[in-house]
């Protein structure tokens, strides 16, 4: 009888010791994420960031698709510069689509990628890095195009920007970042896939050579910012000198007009003067050509100003992510990606608001008042 009671006591103790401890659901989710992936974000953060990311992706895809459709429908806006703008919109659209594959991983609590295969995540990671690089090189093409158009002779611009050379420039904006993305992993430097720290499809931060891969990417992408900055500084200097000379010429002209003497233009040819008023006069055809030339210059300066704002927004949006790559920080990496995606959404709005050529077409499309003549 004593033996029987001893067994009963041991069974009771075993039952008491194996009773599971009850945890709250949020704590259990956060502990699951931190223990399985060591992610520096809580599950609530991942959920909120995934919602914001989805909204930005939808806006970016819709806006950049409208830009591409506008250029496909309207022949008069298919200029050399807009070819690079279309390339920028295409890369932004593809990059936004690739980011969609990170949303399931951010909302899931599984240790790895929630889908059955990791192939979509790997392909999305490559596409994200490729399109970011392509966007930067597209901005370089835009900046150089505006610099040559504004500061160089017309013959130089026409010789450089032929159909075949434009195609090579666009192709190069894809090939250079593509080589920078895929060649290092083949040599064992970096690895694309699901990153357990940020739970996104990107370069795996736990790979031993992940830091080396980031250095290579920065070495390929950083010079683009320098080229863009120098190009627009040279454009600003040229435009400032031009307006200073124009102001001096107008001052000299007004002085000569008050004294009743004729002036000499910059090319040294005399200007005909009215016999009674002594006011310089020009033939009607020459005056019309001059007004048309000034209008074209104003339009080109307006385009340059609009695209400079687009470039400035992109550089500002890319800066936080670049700083975190240099600082090797993953805590705010997702916030940097969100900030970068904002530029994909704002570019179409900047085109519609201020671009003298794309703006009217985009505003008409938004108001569903597209012209029936697609080549107009």
UniProtKB/TrEMBL annotation:
Region Disordered, residue ranges: 253-275
Source organism, top-level taxon: Eukaryota
Record's subcellular location: Cell membrane
Pfam family, any one: 7tm_1
The UniProt record lists the keyword ATP-binding: no
GO MF terms held by the record: G protein-coupled receptor activity
Protein name per its UniProtKB record: 5-hydroxytryptamine receptor 4-like
Transmembrane portions of the chain: 51-72, 84-103, 123-145, 166-187, 215-236, 307-326
Lineage: Eukaryota, Metazoa, Echinodermata, Eleutherozoa, Asterozoa
Comp. bias intervals (Polar residues): 253-266
InterPro entries xref list: GPCR_Rhodpsn (IPR000276), GPCR_Rhodpsn_7TM (IPR017452)
Gene: LOC110986471
Keywords: Cell membrane, G-protein coupled receptor, Membrane, Receptor, Transducer, Transmembrane, Transmembrane helix
Keyword Cell membrane carried by entry: yes
Every G-protein coupled receptors family 1 profile domain range: 63-351
Bilayer topology term: Multi-pass membrane protein
């Amino acid at each position: 009888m004593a033996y029987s009671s001893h067994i009963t006591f041991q069974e009771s103790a075993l039952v008491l010791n194996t009773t599971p401890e009850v945890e709250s659901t949020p704590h259990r989710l956060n502990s699951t994420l931190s223990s399985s992936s060591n992610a520096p974000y809580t599950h609530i953060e991942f959920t909120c960031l995934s919602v914001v990311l989805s909204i930005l992706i939808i806006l970016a895809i819709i806006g950049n698709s409208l830009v591409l459709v506008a250029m496909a429908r309207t022949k008069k806006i298919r200029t050399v510069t807009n070819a690079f703008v279309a390339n920028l919109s295409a890369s932004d659209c593809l990059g936004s689509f690739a980011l969609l594959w990170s949303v399931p991983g951010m909302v899931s609590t599984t240790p790895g990628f929630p889908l059955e295969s990791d192939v979509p995540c790997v392909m999305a990671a490559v596409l994200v890095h490729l399109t970011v690089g392509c966007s930067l090189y597209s901005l370089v093409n835009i900046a150089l195009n505006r610099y040559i158009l504004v500061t160089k002779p017309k013959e130089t611009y026409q010789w450089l920007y032929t159909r075949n050379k434009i195609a090579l420039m666009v192709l190069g904006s894809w090939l250079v970042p593509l080589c920078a993305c895929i060649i290092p992993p083949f040599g064992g430097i970096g690895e694309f896939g699901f990153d357990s720290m940020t739970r996104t499809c990107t370069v795996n931060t736990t790979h031993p050579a992940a830091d080396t891969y980031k250095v290579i990417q920065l070495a390929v992408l950083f010079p683009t910012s320098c080229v863009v900055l120098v190009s627009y500084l040279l454009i600003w200097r040229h435009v400032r000198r031009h307006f200073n000379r124009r102001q001096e010429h107008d001052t000299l002209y007004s002085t000569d007009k008050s004294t009743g003497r004729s002036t000499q233009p910059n090319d040294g040819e005399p200007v005909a003067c009215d016999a009674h008023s002594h006011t310089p006069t020009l033939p009607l055809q020459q005056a019309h050509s001059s007004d048309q030339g000034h209008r074209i210059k104003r339009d080109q300066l307006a385009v340059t100003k609009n695209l400079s704002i687009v470039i400035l927004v992109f550089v500002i949006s890319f800066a936080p992510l670049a700083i975190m790559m240099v600082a090797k920080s993953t805590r705010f990496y997702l916030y940097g990606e969100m900030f970068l995606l904002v530029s994909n959404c704002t570019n179409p709005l900047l085109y519609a608001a201020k671009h003298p050529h794309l703006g009217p077409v985009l505003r008409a499309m938004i108001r569903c008042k597209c012209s029936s003549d697609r080549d107009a």
